[in-house]
Design goal:
5 helices
Length: about 170
């Protein structure tokens, strides 16, 4: 049975390990070992995701199975340059990761429902995210929930720049 709860500081090491594993499994073959290592350290190292658990600007929701983290979603202040970003009261969905062992178990939809409700509860009028251009499964998932592709975003992984698509949902 999947349980959902907010992350606490003690979750940092396990959450970072789960996030690194998900990113590497999904995208690891796209990058040199140096670029991948740089990205994983910057985003999921001690000064990245684990430190954001205690940061009041971020909210992180976990999905657990038998006490083990199998998914998470992270919300925070919008940093994406989507059209009309300056006029929107936007929240950014930085990550929504689900372990491949739990794809199809409803974890992704439950975490996205939480993200949408939380953004609305914070008074946001827009939920924004970026998704890798060739991650067709994720793009379709967000489109089914009403997100609209509004343009290109250059996403750095080490010194490699990938094309992401900016997607927004009017709340």
């Amino acid at each position: 049975m999947i349980d959902y709860r907010d992350a606490v500081p003690g979750d940092g090491p396990e959450l970072a390990a789960m996030a690194r594993a998900c990113f590497t499994e999904t995208f690891g073959t796209l990058y040199s070992s140096e670029n991948l290592a740089t990205f994983l350290h910057q985003v999921f190292g001690p000064n990245g995701l684990p430190s954001q658990i205690s940061d009041p600007d971020f909210t992180i929701r976990l999905a657990t199975d038998a006490g083990r983290i199998v998914g998470f979603a992270k919300l925070g202040p919008n940093a994406l340059p989507f059209p009309q970003a300056d006029d929107a009261n936007a929240v950014e969905l930085y990550q929504l990761y689900v372990s491949s062992s739990h794809h199809g178990d409803g974890v992704g939809p439950a975490l996205l429902d939480w993200a949408i409700a939380t953004a609305r509860g914070q008074g946001a009028d827009t939920l924004a995210l970026s998704v890798y251009v060739d991650n067709h499964r994720a793009k379709a998932f967000y489109a089914r929930r009403g997100f609209v592709d509004v343009g290109r975003y250059d996403f750095p992984v080490g010194d490699q720049i990938d094309e992401d698509r900016l997607m927004v949902l009017a709340l």
